[in-house]
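chain below, 205 aa
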Amino acid sequence: MLSLSYENELQSQGYPIIAGIDEAGRGPLAGPVVAATVIFNFKEIPKELQPITDSKKLSAKKREKLFNLITQHALDCGVGICDHQVIDRINILQATFLAMKKALGAIKQKPNIILLDGNLPLPNYSSPQKSIINGDNLIFSIAAASIIAKVTRDRIMENMHLKYPSYFFAKHKGYGTKVHMNALKLYGPCEIHRKSFKPVKLLLK
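prediction:
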């Protein structure tokens, strides 16, 4: 299990409500970017949540199982989504920040501090925050948020596969794999492709 020492230390410093935040889907050529925020009672983490780690290290089956357990045991859990149109309009970084703010807006509790994966702070956020490089691999609440964001986004892309089967979105979730690039070259971009992303932009020309 990831150590809770970071969260415990923050609580001892006077931050009782800690929210972990992470996103999924910054890199793909299609679909939305999804952010999630999760708040736990760190004194009551059940044993079945011990496998929580960075979502990229877990199989899809394990992520699904942990997704259900996190939503069941977390004190609060919120998701924020920005679709391909928003990404094209304001760029992927700003869309990621907006998705994070939406995720924070979706929880009922007001965190005393937020913990973000990465090296950038959430802009125009007035409460305390800490950005932690490799946070999804080190911090329990960020890792939990990474699982919620990843599973939510994967489910969206599996639904998109039903709508646009030629692109095999269920297989690669919109990332620029060989299968995806071949389909893009063959059929051109579809509705949910990010037109501002270079490989898609080049095909539009």
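Strands lie at 18-24, 33-39, 76-82, 113-117, 129-132. The chain has a mean pLDDT of 96.
thats it, cya
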